[in-house]
Each structure stands twice: as structure tokens, then as C-alpha cells.
Amino acid sequence: MVSAGRLQRIIAGVTISLAACLFGEAGRAEPFLAGSYTFSDELGGFRILSVSGSGSSTDPVVLEEEIYDTGPVILVIRRVIPDGVTADRSFTETSRALTLIKVVRNGTRRIWAGFDLELQEVLDKPSIYSDGLSFNQIGAAPPDVTSDNFSRNVRLFEPYDRVRFHSGHVDPETTARIRVHITDPTPEQIFYLLQDPQILFAFLTR
Prior knowledge:
By secondary structure, the protein is mostly beta strands. The protein is built from two helices and twelve strands; from the N terminus they run αββββββββββββα.
């Protein structure tokens, strides 16, 4: 017969194991392949649920994910080099542009009053104008950046490439749909997309 104390420890161990499977193992999760890119939640704070599409303007990559951390999280994006092609920063035209639709589930217990996206060519360093990576900065047009939850957005090109969505909200356990177009005329093989939900109380104090 199992004692009450041992039963509690067993239940606790199972709970920890399940939590690790859902969240803690994100750093060892296999990346998702779509078109000429792979997408990874390896830096933690969120998990990718599914990815589809090629990344073109007519067939965008649709990335479904759940953010469960209240702080910024970072999506790792790698360009896939086709077999027989050298990695010389210009290996394919499709590597220079990516149309991305993010379906983001609010897995926190907080209301999101805004949502920021920021591109980084070097992890934890803002993407500067001269590196070429941007939210289609040169050919920017309103349809490039949209959201069904936020009626407005502002592009902050300097000193970093950031889009701030506002005038709306995302309740816990609901989703936001965001579309962006990313361009890079001199593409690196790896870049990062910082995702920063603006918690209601934090957003209102700015």
C-alpha cells in the first residue's frame, strides 16, 4: 500500500515531468520547417504549435504558437541552404523575403494591450539600418503589417527595426493574428524575431 506522502511525491513528480514536456523542453525541440526557413522556440518562454506555407506573399508562412511567459520571447529563424548551393549570402531569391503570419495564443493570465515585434540579426542587439534586415523598410506599404486584434501599428525603424501594435487587446486564452513582411537584401543564415506582449498595466504606464 502506497503511503499518502509517497503518493504526493509521485503526483508531484508526474506534474513536473508534464510541465517539462510542455515548456522546459522547448530548448531541445526540433525546429519546424516551412519553405526555405526553419523556426525554433529553443530560447524558451513560448512554444511553436505548427508551421505551414512557403513564405511568399501569396503563400505566407503561418506560424501558430503559444506564449506563456510575460517577458519578451525570441523566435529563432534560420534560412535553409538548398543542397548543392553555397552559403554566400545570396544563395536564393526566396531567402531575401519572408511573409509571415503569426497566430499567437495568449497563454498568460494577463491581458495584452499591445504587441511589439523586433528584428535582430545578432541576438540581443537591435538591427541597425545598415544590416539590411527590416520589416520591408524600403518598400513599406500598409498591407505589409496588419493585425485582427490591434487596429493601429507604428513602425520604429531607428535605432532598431520594431513594429508596435496597439489600439486593441488580447485576452488570456485567446489568439492574435499578425501579418508582417520581412526583407533582407544581404541575408544572413540566421536571424531573430523578438516578440514582446505589452501587459495591460505596463502598457498604460508608458
